[in-house]
Amino acid sequence: MAYKLGIIGTNWITKQFVQAAHESGQYVLKAVYSRHEDTGKQFAQPFNVDDVYTDLESFYNSGINVVYIASPNSVHFEQVKAAINHDIHVIVEKTAFSNPMEYAAILELLNDHPNVRLFEAARHIQQANFKVIEQQVAQMEKIAGATFVYEKYSSRFDDYLAGNEPNVLSRRFSAGALTDLGVYPIYAAIKLFGAPKQTHYFATPLRNGADGRGIAILRHDDFDVTIEFGKGSNSHLPSEILGRRDTLVIGDIAEVLDVTYYDDEGAAHQLSQEPLANPMTTEAVKFADMMTNPVDTADAYQELLSLSQTVNQVLFDLRQDAGIVFPADK
To answer: Where is the Gfo/Idh/MocA-like oxidoreductase N-terminal domain (predicted)?
Structure first.
């Protein structure tokens, strides 16, 4: 039986997830929530969905049993909390919550609703090519360091340059380069190497106090991971994981399309698999399995939840280091 899916947020990533959900055969879009009815209807029409809501309570009472949330970061907490209170499974886009205090409150609420599953939609760590990276890292004799790069000119940066404050570049919405783009390589680094011992963040501030780009350093016992990201430029540099003489090169740490291993002799070994047409399909299938088979997947689910919480803490620590405060922190 397919899960009855509701969505919050009507941007391109929501459309991509709905398409992936339908392709998986595990979900059917049932309801759309939007602050503006016209926007919601416009999104729903291609999917032949009539149930469009501007009231969150009515939306959660519409018969859905899983919600995908891709609204601004700052409103995730209240929307997720309401979903859990209605015993609805949650798939929430990165960054899931503004700070560890919000995350702790959600975990406490989950304890009161043991049948509800919460997932952070870090699609790249679910993809086949990321599994290839994990396997190769496990085989490398020594990890000497890593550099992950993800700089992508935002479609909203022109709006910022024109004197406006788009949501994705505003502390008011718990946003900025770190929580919008940096979360991708940070998720990858923590999934591959575990929680760092120390963190440092050298942020380049925008005029509104948010970060437009930055360099984060995650310090482990005997190596560092340097992460460079930003929303006001395009970088075409690959990411690298260094061994001694061997190196793992990743073409794009967020899309994970190209993975090449250079052995001790410098010979190149192409490790990439052909990606799925929709990069969100794999996570949609995995989340459905964890909701359908909660006992068999309990350990894997707890691992994902713990990873998400660790990423949240590291993002917060990096912001603290750079002196970036969100209104949600107060």
So the answer is: 4-115
Residue 36 has which token pair? 């503006």
Length, in residues, of the chain: 330
126 φ/ψ angles, rounded to the nearest 5 degrees = -95, -15
Q: Which residues contact 122 (CB under 8 A, 6 or more apart)?
A: 94, 183, 184, 187, 283, 308, 311
Q: How many CA atoms, within 13 angstroms, populate the side-chain half-sphere of residue 113?
A: 20
Nearest CA-CA partner of 191 in 247, 237, 127: 127
| Residue 66 φ then ψ, to 5° | -150, 140
Q: Which of 52, 114, 56 is nearest to 83 (CA)?
A: 56
Cβ of 156: how many Cβ atoms within 10 Å? Answer: 18
**For residue 284, pLDDT beyond 80:** yes
How far, in Å, CA of 44 to CA of 231, rounded? 30
Beta-strand relationship, 224-230 and 259-262: unpaired
Given this model, what pLDDT does residue 214 score?
98
**Domains observed in the chain:** 3-121 (3.40.50.720), 127-279 (3.30.360.10)
Edge-to-edge, what's the strand order for the sheet holding 52-53? 52-53, 27-33, 3-8, 66-69, 89-92, 118-120
Task: Identify the helix (H) or strand (E) that includes residue 1.
Answer: none
Q: Which two tokens stand for residue 174?
A: 């718990």
The answer to pTM > 0.85 is yes
What's the CA gap between 170 and 175, in Å, rounded? 5
Give all strands (DSSP E) within 232-278, no chain letters: 239-242, 247-250, 259-262, 268-270
Note the pLDDT of residue 253.
97
Paired tokens of 235: 């970088």
Amino acid at 16: Q
**Residue bearing tokens 């917060």:** 316
For strand 89-92 and strand 52-53, is the pairing parallel, antiparallel, or unpaired? Answer: unpaired
Q: Are 104 and 288 in contact (CB under 8 A)?
A: no
Handedness of CA 116, 122, 123, 125 (dihedral sign): negative
Count of other CB atoms within 10 angstroms of residue 329: 16
